[in-house]
Amino acid sequence: MNTAEPRRRRWPRSVRARTALAVAAAVTVALAAMGWWLHHDVYRQSTQIARDQALAPLLALVDQVREGVVPSPRSAVPYEIVATGRRTAVASGGGMEASTPGSRHVLPAPPPLSGPVDTGSGWYYTQHHIRVPERRDDGLAGGFDPAGGTYPVLSTDIWAGELSSGQAAALGVAPDATLRVHVVVLPDTAEAITDTIDVLLLRAGLVSLVLISAVTHLTVRVALRPVEAIRAATASVTASDPTERVTVPATGHEITALATTINTTLQRLDEAAARQRRFVADAAHELRSPLTALLASLEVALAYPERTDWPGAVTTAARQTRRLQSLTEDLLLLARLDAHAPTADGGSVDLAALASRLVERYDLPDGPVTLATDTTERAYVSGDAGDLGRLLRNLVDNAARHATNRVRVTVRNQGEEVVLSVHDDGPGIPDEKSEHVFERFVRLDDARSRDRGGTGLGLPIARELAHRHRGTLFLVPSDVGACFELRLPRAPAPVDA
């Protein structure tokens, strides 16, 4: 029975769609923040304008009261005039007038004054946010019903003692009463303007969001066209045809750097594949030579057993077998060096002592070659003693095969490095081939030919081991013979040294 996989949330996989969604989300947040700020700022400014517009009616009402005239209830703004000692309003209008005569005033009465208000300029007003209480006796006339709401209210006080007795009587207040003129600032205009702005902002925001998302999607699509071309070109690269390269855009942006990097990588892969093919071919050729010689000697011995020099045939077979063994070990070591990390970990190794032991125990081939070492002090390096010993042996083997009379190994401390030199007095190596000898399965002509016993892997292995120990190995100029110089970072001496 097949178990249905749980449904996963599907997100767009396209970079274009993801980028457009990300930009849309960022724009939405930005527009929402901007809309919130605009909403409150427009409302604040609209309220301020409404308050400024309420000052003129307030001033007109004050002038009428000072003249002893009861203002008309017909007003563009809600107002109420209250006085001390009165239960009902002196006057009200703009929707604040009571529907039933004799009803209580809505807005609070002022505290009693004992004289004119000293303002210095002759005019003042105060602004308070007042909650209009609900009336229990009756409602308000007109369509405006502020009951239960809180509104900005502009107020100013007038002492009735400033008026004549006839003016006070016309207003219906005592001669020593205090009057307060209230003008309510209506929020309707501010709210209407804010609502209109909100609708406009919402429409503009939606249109902007759609346009920005579409433009982002199109821009990313155009920008990724070179990437698609690079992908198509890279997909056509095969092992049989690794020479394909991607087209580098002339725009000079990040995609140009990507194309250049891909081409560089493809070039390195092409060169690595070529080296691998060449290495396999050379290895097959090197293995075929001793196998062919070994098989030929054995077949001849088997074909003519009574005329075969069996000790000589066995000696030849053993020599070819040793050559096969040496070549196989070198190939395995190269494979290990290619597969492992580029640095070798280990303790401190005295390179001078290692070189001295190698020279003392080295089995020189038949001939007049002498091997000597020149070490004056201890020279410690970090690494694996076995790998370093193999490196030194390869250098000494190469020098001993081509030396005429002498091979000298020198070890010295030089600053922060340990320098080891292996110098032979053979025919030497031309300068133009100083790097060629470090290639695998490479042997130079004449004096450095195959009949001298090398496999063509000793120097490449030595250089790989030097690199693994963070060192260098080069052929340095020499007046006589060939001189190989190894430089390794100097290490502190061990505690028990």
Automatic annotation (TrEMBL):
<dbReference type="Pfam" id="PF00672">
    <property type="entry name" value="HAMP"/>
</dbReference>
<dbReference type="InterPro" id="IPR050428">
    <property type="entry name" value="TCS_sensor_his_kinase"/>
</dbReference>
<dbReference type="InterPro" id="IPR003661">
    <property type="entry name" value="HisK_dim/P_dom"/>
</dbReference>
<dbReference type="InterPro" id="IPR036097">
    <property type="entry name" value="HisK_dim/P_sf"/>
</dbReference>
<dbReference type="InterPro" id="IPR004358">
    <property type="entry name" value="Sig_transdc_His_kin-like_C"/>
</dbReference>
<dbReference type="Pfam" id="PF02518">
    <property type="entry name" value="HATPase_c"/>
</dbReference>
<feature type="domain" description="Histidine kinase">
    <location>
        <begin position="282"/>
        <end position="492"/>
    </location>
</feature>
<protein>
    <recommendedName>
        <fullName>histidine kinase</fullName>
        <ecNumber>2.7.13.3</ecNumber>
    </recommendedName>
</protein>
<feature type="domain" description="HAMP">
    <location>
        <begin position="221"/>
        <end position="274"/>
    </location>
</feature>
<keyword id="KW-1133">Transmembrane helix</keyword>
<dbReference type="GO" id="GO:0016301">
    <property type="term" value="F:kinase activity"/>
</dbReference>
<keyword id="KW-0902">Two-component regulatory system</keyword>
<keyword id="KW-0418">Kinase</keyword>
<keyword id="KW-0597">Phosphoprotein</keyword>
<keyword id="KW-0812">Transmembrane</keyword>
<dbReference type="Pfam" id="PF00512">
    <property type="entry name" value="HisKA"/>
</dbReference>
<dbReference type="InterPro" id="IPR036890">
    <property type="entry name" value="HATPase_C_sf"/>
</dbReference>
<feature type="transmembrane region" description="Helical">
    <location>
        <begin position="20"/>
        <end position="38"/>
    </location>
</feature>
<keyword id="KW-0808">Transferase</keyword>
<dbReference type="InterPro" id="IPR003594">
    <property type="entry name" value="HATPase_dom"/>
</dbReference>
<dbReference type="InterPro" id="IPR005467">
    <property type="entry name" value="His_kinase_dom"/>
</dbReference>
<keyword id="KW-0472">Membrane</keyword>
<dbReference type="InterPro" id="IPR003660">
    <property type="entry name" value="HAMP_dom"/>
</dbReference>
